[in-house]
Amino acid sequence: MDIAQSTIEEENLDFQFAQRGLKVIWDTGAYDFLQDEASDTANPSLWRQGQLCSVTAGLYHVTDGVYQVRGFDLANMSIVQIPSSNGIIIIDCLTSVETARRALQLFLDFYQDRTGQEADIKALFYTHCHVDHFGGAQAIVDIAAKVGTTLRIISPYGFLEHAVSENVYAGPAMALRSIYMHGEALRKNPVGQIGCGLGPALSTGTSSLVAPLEVVTKNGLLDPEILGLQVICQLTPGTEAPAKLNFYFPDYNALCMAENATHTLHNIQTLRGAPVRDARLWSRYLDESITLFGDKTDVVFSSHHWPTWNGEADSGTNVVKFLSEQRDYYAYLHNETLRQLKDGKTPLEIAEDIVMPPTLSVRTNLQGYYGSISHNVKGVYDHYVGSFIGNPAYLWPLAPVDEATEFVKCMGGSQSVLEKAQAYHAEKNLRFAATLLDKLVFATQSSADEKDSEVAKQAKEELAAVYTVLGCSTENGTWRNFFLTGAFELQNGAQAAVNTISPQSLMALEFDQLFDIVAVRINGPEAFKEPVKYLEKEISIDFLVEDVEHFKIMGA
Question: Which domains does the chain have, with CATH numbers?
């Protein structure tokens, strides 16, 4: 069987797996348009990925005892039953309290209808420290509290530190980038947001942060155990998140890979901003997963996308193949980037020159729907030597507005730059047209004399048109959203961030984290302007804190 034929068969298998096991339907209809043939305003491969990610929202049966709620948010909620009991555990809980509440209620209603009993929620597991996996936690806590359940909340070591670092300290900046990355300002239609490659979209409700009460610090059987259910843990720090945890369930021959293996190439350096990931470690941990669990696993499921099952008749190798391909792709991307780095190439040069293995590059589960080879190469480069490329000309560049102003002057003024950019657009050299127009927009918008000029208006319109073409043609979902949101904001103005973290989430933080939050919000330059008031005398700030024991427990 040749590669092309094998790929077609496996693509068909993706559609079977994505729909398999649907039990209860809850259909928003937002992505119904994706069931039509691919629009000419979208890359056909990304359209296909959008179809797979937007299958009917509802409850899916993964294997006996394991379920997932998919299509309610960017991520999945997974539910595992405790054998011979009505107990369940929940793995990840979506972005928002509202979607998590609805998703869990969907399973609870199904379980009661099927068994005549109420499910008993024993534990909530966080696989890692990204908000689409813990933001709905308050809903789980509230539902468990209604029936008087003592809920265990379990996370990988380092979870709270990194959750606060990414989502609170840097939260405002990440929220603004998320508008672009996930296309939050775009309408869901063939000319707008068609997903983001990893799932449909982030929900737009209120995110919570409930601190874990238990932390996994070593591999092996969960300790203390969950009575009646074996849970084998595999810590994978430094992969898709700095605090990360996979789970294997021997009772069901089922492996949860968190977000370490999904049906897309993932990010080494994410567009929303996050610590750069280690592609070498990521590959090594995938290899460890295969060694530990590969020959024991009948189905692998993750916090995004759909599961992969082994062949039912002959105990086929779909699971190991799926994990192996992910392992090999990250390893090759890492190694080839470093090989070219050794030869003195810059990240931009490597990103243009790198060629991935043909046996892997045809695989749909490795396409750049969410992460991209181009950006990941730059992430590997940054991980080892930083973003500076070693050229003195880039050691101390001008700020963007100042640089753009000087470029426009050098090229004969705004009208000249506009005409040159229009010519590049007409020649379909869109990338350089975007570069010129970006300089022109920066320069004209910073000038009081030109800001409202006809040239300034045409520059914004032209750049929006170039971004639209780039967005509609790219295979990468987050690139599409970035380009199209850029076009949208050029035409409609900047958009406010959608997701918010609830004030009560601050109760999950430790004292030093609370003080850090205060510190990063102090405007130092404003204090410098009034030295007599702020700088020439000692100032002390007293904090009165009630319920200290609560903070000690939550910060333990």
Answer: 3-385 (3.60.15.30), 393-492 (1.25.40.880)
